[in-house]
Amino acid sequence: MTRNDDFERTLESWLRRQAPPQAPDRVLEAALQRADSESQRRGWLHRLAGGTPMTIMIRVAAVAAVLAIAAFIGFQFSNLPDNIGASPTPLPSPSAEPATSSAPSVAPESSEPSAEPSAAALVLRLLGAGEAGRVHLVTILDDGRVITTDRGISEGESEPPVERRLTAEGIQLVRDEMAATDLTDASATYDPVANPGEELGFGGAGPSLEVGQPGAETVVITWYLFADTEQDLAAPQPEAEVLDALAARLSTLEEWLPASAWADAAGMPYEPEHYRAWIYSQQWEGSVDDLPVEAATVSWPPVQGSDAFGDAVDAVAQEPIEGDGPPRCRVVTAAEAVPVVEALEAAGAELDVFSTFPGRAFALGSRGTGRLVTITFEPILPLAEADCGAEATF
Amino acid sequence: MVQRELVELARNGDRDAFSALAASVVDRLYATAVLILRDHSMADDATQETIVRAWRDLPSLRDPDRFDAWLRRLLVNACHEEGRRERRRRPEMTLLPIHEPSVGDSSGALADRDALERGFRRLSSDHRAAVVLHHYLGLSMPEVADATGVALGTAKSRLHHATRALRAALEADARGGMTTGGTA
Fold first, then answer.
1. Domains of chain B with bracketed CATH
2. Which chain A residue's Cα is nearest to B149?
3. Fewest CB within a 10 Å sphere: which of A49, A126, A380, B39?
4. Fold of the A122-269 domain
5. CA A271, A273, A274 angle in degrees (round to 5)?
6. Which pLDDT score, from 0 to 100, does residue B170 have?
7. How far is residue A366's CA from residue A352's CA, in Å, rounded to a whole number?
8. Of the candidates B35, B55, B60, which has its C-beta nearest A15's C-beta?
9. For residues A320 and A63, is the Cβ–Cβ distance under 8 A?
10. Which of A51, A40, A240 is nearest to A152 (CA)?
11. Are A67 and A54 in contact (CB under 8 A)?
12. Tell me: the pLDDT tens digits for A132-157?
């Protein structure tokens, strides 16, 4: 028997002795009592943002990603990198080159990109919903672009967003699909209504469908389909049922649109023009040996003062932890972000912890200061506000 | 009734089936939570939260055969959130020893137990979760990664660091014991 075997046997034996043989009765009783007052969520469309390790505690998805990653690793705020260098390469392209010792060129802070409105107009945008806020599912523009977030985001197994192009015929088929419901011409909210004498226990936002109207304001339809399983608590919701079915169709276009509806053969990774670059740092409380990739070994970012990067953003649903500063955010172009991403990637700093976050996430540790920085790049959708204060749709 | 049937019934809103399902898993959930959190009260809350979320979100579980893995993930998430919540309330929280056996230990085992207790308390909850899932629940490393929502490499790294720390605690204790014995 090896020393490893001895150690593992000792450890396993100790754990078995430490584990209580059974739960106190009150635990199950209280849990079932609470469950009795809760309805079940109705499927993936209504439960997109609640399944990740951290998303429960945050409302804004972008902030969520940064805080979640940082919290998950267990760091606290610290040194923040400054600016981002320039490169024409699109962000999603991985780099096979190792990190170099020279820092990328640094763009002046004043080079923050302006939100350049796309020439295309919105056909529709569908967002699913959950505890952590609405989550993007599909956007269609009238130039034919279709940007889709993988449905697997509901179970933490999502692929990166994909872009395809519809033909004019394809766009018309989608519009016909919406028109057939008679529910997408005017803004409306379809929330559940309790039957007389009943009380509904539901919370959070439901899905949302934005429909572009040429020459008029965008129509916004929201609904929440109550899962009325056996207690008959809510009045029937025919509109919400129809909208749920429509949403399922809109998020699975490839399953029902004919080949002639597509202007391309297959999807390509979505390459946004802008990203929200989020930086969040914390003081590491554990051993410095457990910190991730040393910040000093990466060509970027130069570790500087914590107020040097972008703007501080309130962590909406996160109670402040002593020693943590606010997340900081700056909108950057894809070209600006690429050399940073490549350097971080080549250094092995990438996190694949949160597959529900469709951007890129990295972590660096500073052993000199005992702090760690997490950095995420969140794609900004076409026609979305290119700033850090907007509620994220990813 | 087998678990799969209970899961399918509960997923369709059958509260009796869910009660039976919850009763069949609560002891294991609670023991795991106690080991990860090292606190009975927090383990109570994390276990309750796991069961409530399981009820609420069961319709989103596509494969009933994944129920155990899905539930473990809910539990680990709940433990993590509970730990964070507690940290905000009590930043310098003291983790208490929990289930102390009253008989059956030799003095050597007692020393090991104390050393492991000290070493285990010093681990982060993420590292403790890796140890508990692998060495208590007997999960494979891919299953540990799945339950904790991290990449396989991260899960392996956590377990490596945690076991290294625990082994060091045992060895330090042994060295201390030898020195004391030699000078007495």
1. 1-92 (1.10.1740.10), 105-184 (1.10.10.10)
2. A353
3. B39
4. Mago nashi protein (3.30.1560)
5. 115
6. 75
7. 20
8. B35
9. no
10. A51
11. yes
12. 457 788 999 999 999 987 655 444 44
Integer Cα distance of A51 and B84 in angstroms: 17
Residue ranges matching CATH 3.30.1560.10 in chain A = 122-269
Question: Pick from A19, A39, A53: which is nearest to B35 by CB?
Answer: A19
Q: Is the distance from CB of B147 to CB of B69 less than 8 angstroms?
A: yes
Q: Is the dihedral of CA A80, A83, A86, A88 positive or negative?
A: positive
CA angle A36, A38, A39 (to 5 degrees): 110
Task: For residue range B84-113, list pLDDT tens digits in order.
Answer: 766 544 433 333 333 333 333 334 455 566
Say yes or no to pLDDT of A27 above 80. yes
A324-349 pLDDT, tens digit per residue, is 566 778 888 888 888 888 888 888 87
Reported in sequence order, the residue ranges of B14-125 that DSSP labels E, i.e. its strands, are: none
Q: Which of residues 283-302 of A touch B (CB under 8 A)?
A: 285-287, 289-290
Q: What mean pLDDT value characterizes chain B? A: 77
The predicted model scores a pTM of 0.54
Residues A244, A229: Cα–Cα separation, whole Å? 17
* Torsional sign, CA B162, A65, B55, A24: positive
Is 80 exceeded by the pLDDT of residue A127?
yes
A389 touches chain B (CB under 8 A): no
The ipTM of this complex is 0.82
d(CA B81, CA B89): 12
pLDDT tens per residue, range B118-129: 788 778 788 899
